[in-house]
Target: Phosphogluconate dehydratase
Amino acid sequence: MSAHKTLSAITNRIIERSKPTRETYLGHMRAAASGSPKRGALGCANLAHGFAACGPADKAALAADIVPNVGIITAYNDMLSAHQPFETYPALIKQAAHEAGGVAQVAGGVPAMCDGVTQGFAGMELSLFSRDVIAMATAVGLSHDMFDAAIYLGVCDKIVPGLVIGALSFGHLPAVFVPAGPMTSGLSNDEKAKTRQLYAEGKVGRAELLESESKSYHGPGTCTFYGTANSNQMLMEIMGLHIPGASFINPGTPLRDALTKEATKRALAITACGNHYTPVGEMLDERAFVNGVVGLNATGGSTNHTIHLIAMAAAAGIKLTWQDISDISDLVPLLARVYPNGLADVNHFHAAGGMGFMIRELLDAGLLHEDVRTVWGEGLRDYTIEPKLGKNGQVVRDAAPIISGDAKILAKADQGFQPNGGIKVLSGNIGNAIIKISAVKADRHIIEAPAKVFHDQEDMQAAFKAGTLTGDFIAVVRYQGPKANGMPELHRLMTVLGILQDRGQRVALVTDGRLSGASGKVPSAIHVTPEALDGGLIGRIEDGDIIRLDAQAGTLDVLVAADVLQQRSSNAPDLSANQFGMGRELFTAFRNIAGRADLGASVF
Model:
């Protein structure tokens, strides 16, 4: 089915806007391509270094330039539950490569930090910048020019976007992304959230809170709520970087291993050495990124991707904007209710029909570009499947179910939970911002209230404990942008504001910082651009100023006369505490050159 005319129009304007930069990018990538193994251009001493540690058979194969070599870029560490399963993947990938007549080598490792561990602490100020470090580390790993394709092992928040950016810097190589899958379901997200609120109110202690959290985050695999990590996996599948059905199979299962081996064989099949050459720089075109934005909105995905998708697209020479994301949101219905947009987790989503069901529904409604290239071949229709394990241990793919396994979790395209995806751009005299309203009740879409101004989340939490956050108000938490302190997530504020909202207060948040992909029921204007340290008007708001946040009209204004605002100074706080400790001194250059949030908050 052809794409909806509005979706096609949005795609065409992105193509036109991107022509100069996209053509330059493609020119560079095509110049780097080669129809024979890349290592053939290396000198003998260089090549000898490249396979010195290999076994005799691999040495012979690599020396003869007759087989493709796959480079593995891994984000393995065994502190991250989502990445711990990757420990065994290189051996599995090498075995699968040998079975297919190829070779695989670990090309390099990239750092992988957990926002869940650093949330609310100094380490979180490195989180956003870790994306660009990962991209650079990916480039270092592939710079040896030994490889004909690459397999990327990554799952969580900044890791996958960083790997994509790095992969696109080697866009002449095919790229296959391999996930580890979500952990099995534990304590429900709703119960976990209730315990957090009770702890914040002092009604339960740390022991009870830790017990609750441990029952929720309890084993290997991705956290099961629908935050940035699981949004990443959805994106990799709907953009064609996963093999079909790979995203949400639990780790440590025979099907998970079978999918990993199959991904390896596919990576070998799509190198320039064969007949199905699929360079990632050409594969990820404007249509693929539009498909990613559609998926983000249809699932109520992470607002972090309003930053990451723009940075990823820019790495391919594509100019994606917040307005594109918002306009696609207006077109795409919300088809999934997964926490925080519902009570289910990603395992429930997968059991209800998962990615195959959703992709088919969107394709049939004309809300995806079907005629895209993927690592599996031509066309997205191949992804409308449900993966299973065959009797011989191979992956078999059945057609995705016609009926949702649970209509409260996964809906058909003409029966969406709401008519739009819920991600909107807000614009006004404060600047531009992003809001996600898929979990915000309709009577909270417009909030007009006096400002309470804070310069960090700790100050706001202290005010909550002191009992001074009374009445209706809009919390303004500023100097939290990329230039100020690396733009940490402010997820802890959601518990405080959620409690106050449940008490009957009308509250909202306005910040130049980020919120987790788990942001939910409180209206939140986030990623305010320009940020306070970059001269943004958010730095001139004072306590008591009336702010109007209107998610229906798409506006965000402080109701103070323009001449009064211009006469105010920003009164920037002392930010020296953000400059040192926990490695922050190493990122001074990043803070100085970081771009605006609406341009991807990138240092490139």
Observations:
- The chain has two domains: 5-184+219-399, 423-599.
- Residues 128 and 486 are 6 Å apart (CA to CA).
